[in-house]
Task: structure prediction
Amino acid sequence: MATLALAGCGLGAGSRPVRVSLLVTQGFGAQTVLARQAPKVVGADTVMRMLERNASVTTRYGGGFVESIQKLSGGGASDWFYYVNGVQAGKGAADTKLHSGDHVWWDRHDWAATQTIPAVVGSFPEPFLDGYGGKRLPLLIECTQTASPSCRAVEDEFTSLKLVASLSCLLCSQYNESLPVLVGPYATLTPAPAAVKLAGPVSSSGVYARFEDAGRKLVLLDQRGRVVRSAGAGAGLVAATRYAGQPPTWFVTGTDAAGVAAAVQAFNAQTLDGHFAVAVIDDAAIPLPDSGP
Result:
């Protein structure tokens, strides 16, 4: 399904956004097509206009959909989708205003398993650094055991980025608008509505992995949603999803405490960069969807 671009040039009066970056990939981030740390931006640009200024772009349906970027066309079960600070856009690129700090990521991928991937982790430390939609939200770390080494390690990672995080109890973010990071074995996180999605199909969560057997098994899926492999004790997952239009919920979780510790080791910009989600099995970080052993 092609990403809606909508009509409109997107150029208008206003201050030029700063600290903007542009990434174009294909195959769920597997191959980089174009990367611009300082793309050309003019005035109050939109995401679409910024893309057109920095890449070769064609459209279809009267300019309403992105047909190709850098001569790579969509079509069939593969098309272009975009994310701003790790959040899938809810409207067309020509209607999405560019804000300072925005990391814009276009990816061409197979949507046979799901047309909606609500959030991805590969723009970390976004959206925690600059928020999304031009709005910053409080950062809340929700741990099932706030005194655990894994909980403190996640807090330390944010501290190293000069981000102030509040340690909180599970579900506390239900009562205020924030960006929650849930830390703990998956079985202990299931009271959170967003966590329930990680036990369902990829079409619900947007994550190409799911927990089974009451959280004791982590199953990894390929781009078509087919099972590639599974792991029990010590398996970890760093992923993000959304529940009922709420801000993204991030997970640093696993099948058990050892799996959470493994996920913590992957919770950094270097490991997450350019990946939709990351599983950890036998100390190996595996980008998702899983392409196989």
Summary: The helical segments are 47-54, 149-160, 186-189, 193-196, 202-205, 257-266, 269-272.
